Amino acid sequence: MSVNVLAVAGSVCMTLALLLAWCLAGVRTSSFVKRCFPNTQYLLKSHLDFLMMTGLLFIFFLMFRELGLTPPALVLAAMSAGSIGNPAGLLALAITPHMSQRPVSKFGLLMLVSFTLTTIGYGGGAWYVAAAVLRGAID
């Protein structure tokens, strides 16, 4: 798997962040949009999380490219999936705020998987870079 997948995932996150920015403007001016997103705090959190994930994905993409590193496919896939899954969970709560968030609920289990993927992806990516530096593979 190529590190290019991170640029694609970053582009998806940025597109979703922009869409949610319009939704945030809409909840202030449209009763229809407000009905679609009854919990505007989670909508804002989702928007900000998509923006943060965009930045992280592009930073790791550029870092891997610049350093000539190709991390394992698991790291790249986990980073990409977790970066979309975490803010998507917040978006789900903006739409359905009374959804059960207990760890044993379907939503809770999906979020556990997403958090785990994010941890594997970003933790693995960071340690992949650190290991390359410690081996002397990077000047």
**Corresponding CATH architecture:** Up-down Bundle
Silhouette: elongated
Rg measurement, Å: 17 Å
- Range of helix content: over 70%
CATH topology: Four Helix Bundle (Hemerythrin (Met), subunit A)
Total number of beta strands: 0
What number of domains?
A: 1
| Distance between the first and last residues' Cα | 25 Å
Could you give a short account of the major beta sheet?
none
Estimate the strand proportion.
under 5%
Number of helices: 5
Structure write-up:
The protein has 139 residues and is mostly helical. It has a single domain, classed as Four Helix Bundle (Hemerythrin (Met), subunit A) (Up-down Bundle). The protein is built from five helices and no strands. The protein has helices at residues 4-29, 31-36, 40-67, 73-95, 106-135. α1 (4-29) packs antiparallel against α3 and α4 runs antiparallel to α5. It is elongated, with a radius of gyration of 17 Å. The relative contact order is 0.16.
Compose a concise summary of this entry:
With 139 residues, the chain is mainly alpha-helical.
Question: How would you describe this structure in keywords?
Answer:
139 residues, Four Helix Bundle (Hemerythrin (Met), subunit A), 5 helices, mainly alpha
